[in-house]
Please model this.
Amino acid sequence: MRNKKGLLIVVSAPAGCGKDTILEAAFNLCDNLHYSVSVTTRTPRDGEQDGVHYFFKTREEFAEMLKNNELFEHTEYAGNLYGTPKSTIPEMLEAGKDVVLIIEVEGAENIKKIFPDCVLIFVLPPSLAELERRLKKRGTETGDTIKRRIDIAKIEMSFVKNYDYVIINERIEDAVAAFAAVIQAEKLTVKRGLPIIS
Ligand code: 5GP
Model:
C-alpha cells in the first residue's frame, strides 16, 4: 500500500490550447481527479455555471475574500481577477483525492511555493497559427481580445521551463494519454512514498 495522500496537479495553458477538452477527457478516464474551482471576476461565458466552472464574484466580493485571507494565490489576467480558494484543497489531498488546478503561470509558481510536492504540467499548442485558429473558432472572444490572448500566450510560453512536464496538444487523444501517463508515473515515484510489502 502506498502513501494515500492525493496528488496536486497544476495545469497551465495559453487560452485556446484545448486544456478544457483534455481535462474533460482525463476526468472521465481517471476517477480520482477532482477539480479545484477558482474564483473570478470575469463574466461567465455561455454554458458556464457558478460553482462548477468558477465562483463568479464582483470585484468587491473578491477584495473581501482577499482581505479575509481566503485565497492561496491570486492574479489579474486579461483585465479580470482570478484566485485559488483555500477552502478545499488541503482537505481533498488529505482524503487521498488528486486535485487539479487550472491556473496561469504566475499562480502556478506561487502554488509550487506553498505545495512544493505539486506536479506542474504545461499544455502547448502545436503552433501560434493553430492557437489563433482555435481561438477564432471558439468564437467567445472579439478580435481585440484574441490578439491580447495571443500576446499573453507568447509571454506564458516563456515560463515552460519552470514546469515538470510539457504536453503538446496536437491530437487530443495523445494529449489525454500523456496527461494520464504523467499522473500515473508521478504516483509511482519513490519520493511519494514506498509501497508497504508484507
Ligand atoms: P479563462 O478566463 O480563460 O477561464 O482563464 C484565464 C486564465 O486564468 C487561464 O490561464 C486560467 O488558467 C487562469 N486561471 C483560472 N483560475 C485561476 C486561479 O485561480 N489563479 C490563477 N492564478 N489563474 C487562474
In short: The chain has a mean pLDDT of 92. The longest helix spans residues 172-187. The two ends are 10 Å apart (CA to CA).
